[in-house]
């Protein structure tokens, strides 16, 4: 594809973020960019990665680098996929569908959010065998069962249940922006749209996004708080997870685990994988960064379940840091979102390319030609 936008001058995911910020109204940019309260965890996720050193080793033949990773019997081209992001079309129109297709084209996993702005059926078709479905367990058992049955019928074989939303995250930026879903066209929102006419035009063409999987349920919703009520899971307990394990015949992953005790219980209950995640710093501002939480979790599960890490991944080397500390795979959320915001499909592709090329380069630099061989011996100080 001809790079008319000059995206190849964007060297990093941070560059894509800066470009996205210039093209998107503040209220929509903040919806994705923001974190909980004073955003301490948002920053901490990234800072903690910086503290994990890998020591390069030389005189190893790295002329062929292999980034493939096999997970649940499926071999992916790279050891990272797209994390579930709700309401992403509010950030950039058609982002869900574009990223689902991109993940298929690049052969990496795409996780469709319960709260996506495109239906799970449409995303399953677009991701075509590379799609996983993320579930919020509703307080209404019929709603949960309805989503599970739809996910099954759509052909998903991997279900990722999110555990870390017992209460809605408090995101100060959204409160300041008086964010509502669907958007309310207040004078401030109109001004912001006028300052970003291309974004506004695309939105007019594609229509105001909403949480597509709950379309029927939310006909009566009048505020973002109403929408959130359906997505938060205050009553979700280990008993529910046991039932879910019995109900779902495919691979079951639990997302949002930070405590080694919880990780061990997930493994005891027969979960196929854990996503060590703090929701990208969107839930609490006082918890650990995921790369900090990871070693104790890896010890606690001792290989009994697959470990996936997300939150704060902005560099290919972050994925190596996670592997060296015990993760099998990684997910990136905002990195892909910023790519979409920077340049639509071409920007999403650029985000993948940046992470993948950085990963390949870093593997060469540490003298490990195959991603699968990265382990604790690459760490400067073994934790
Ligand atoms: C705008 C936004 C919406 C999100 N929506 C969901 C969601 O619907 N379900 C979920 O399990 N996680 C959700 N997450 C969390 C991501 O799946 C992932 O954990 C997080 O983005 C990883 O951090 P990163 O963005 O720094 O890569 C969301 C994150 C963002 C930024």
Automatic annotation (TrEMBL):
Similarity annotation: Belongs to the FMN-dependent alpha-hydroxy acid dehydrogenase family.
Q: Where are the transmembrane segments?
A: none
**Highest taxon above the source species:** Bacteria
Stored PANTHER family: 2-HYDROXYACID OXIDASE 1, S -2-HYDROXY-ACID OXIDASE-RELATED
| Keywords per UniProt | Flavoprotein, FMN, Oxidoreductase
What the entry lists under InterPro entries is as follows: Aldolase_TIM, Alpha-hydoxy_acid_DH_FMN, FMN-dep_DH, FMN_HAD, FMN_hydac_DH_AS
> Which GO MF terms are attached to this record?
FMN binding; L-lactate dehydrogenase (NAD+) activity
Q: Where does glyoxylate bind?
A: 136, 171, 279, 282
Residues in the active site?
279 (proton acceptor)
For this entry, list what GO says about its biological process: aerobic respiration
Q: Does the keyword Zinc apply?
A: no
- Domain FMN hydroxy acid dehydrogenase span(s) in chain numbering: 5-383
Annotated binding of FMN, by residue: 84-86, 113, 134, 162, 255, 277, 310-314, 333-334
Protein name from the UniProt record: Alpha-hydroxy-acid oxidizing protein
| Cofactor(s), by name | FMN
Q: Which Pfam families does UniProt cross-reference here? A: FMN_dh
Any single GO CC term annotated in Swiss-Prot or TrEMBL for this entry: plasma membrane
């Amino acid at each position: 594809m001809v790079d008319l936008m000059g995206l190849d001058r964007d060297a990093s995911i941070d560059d894509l973020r800066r470009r996205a910020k210039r093209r998107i109204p503040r209220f929509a940019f903040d919806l994705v960019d923001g974190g909980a309260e004073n955003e301490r965890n948002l920053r901490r996720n990234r800072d903690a990665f910086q503290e994990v050193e890998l020591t390069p080793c030389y005189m190893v033949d790295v002329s062929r680098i292999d980034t493939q990773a096999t997970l649940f019997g499926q071999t992916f081209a790279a050891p990272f996929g797209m994390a579930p992001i709700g309401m992403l079309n509010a950030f950039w129109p058609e982002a869900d569908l574009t990223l689902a297709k991109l993940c298929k084209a690049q052969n990496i996993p795409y996780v469709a959010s319960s709260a996506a702005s495109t239906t799970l059926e449409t995303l399953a078709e677009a991701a075509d065998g590379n799609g996983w479905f993320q579930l919020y367990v509703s307080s209404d058992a019929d709603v949960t069962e309805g989503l599970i049955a739809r996910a099954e019928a759509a052909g998903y074989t991997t279900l990722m249940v999110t555990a870390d939303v017992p209460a809605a995250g408090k995101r100060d930026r959204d409160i300041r922006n008086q964010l509502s879903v669907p958007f309310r066209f207040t004078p401030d929102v109109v001004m912001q749209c006028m300052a970003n006419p291309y974004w506004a035009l695309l939105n007019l063409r594609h229509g105001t996004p909403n949480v597509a999987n709950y379309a029927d349920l939310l006909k009566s919703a009048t505020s973002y708080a109403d929408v959130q009520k359906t997505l938060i899971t205050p009553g979700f307990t280990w008993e529910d997870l046991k039932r879910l394990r019995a109900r779902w015949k495919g691979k079951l992953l639990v997302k949002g685990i930070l405590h080694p005790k919880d990780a061990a219980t997930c493994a005891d209950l027969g979960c196929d994988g854990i996503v060590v995640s703090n929701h990208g710093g969107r839930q609490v501002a006082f918890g650990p960064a995921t790369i900090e939480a990871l070693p104790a979790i890896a010890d606690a599960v001792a290989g009994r379940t697959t470990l996936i890490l997300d939150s704060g991944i902005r560099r290919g080397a972050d994925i190596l840091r996670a592997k060296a500390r015990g993760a099998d795979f990684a997910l990136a959320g905002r990195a892909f979102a910023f790519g979409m915001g920077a340049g639509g499909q071409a920007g999403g592709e650029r985000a993948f390319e940046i992470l993948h090329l950085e990963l390949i380069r870093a593997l060469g630099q540490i003298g490990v030609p195959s991603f699968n061989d990265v382990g604790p011996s690459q760490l400067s100080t073994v934790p």
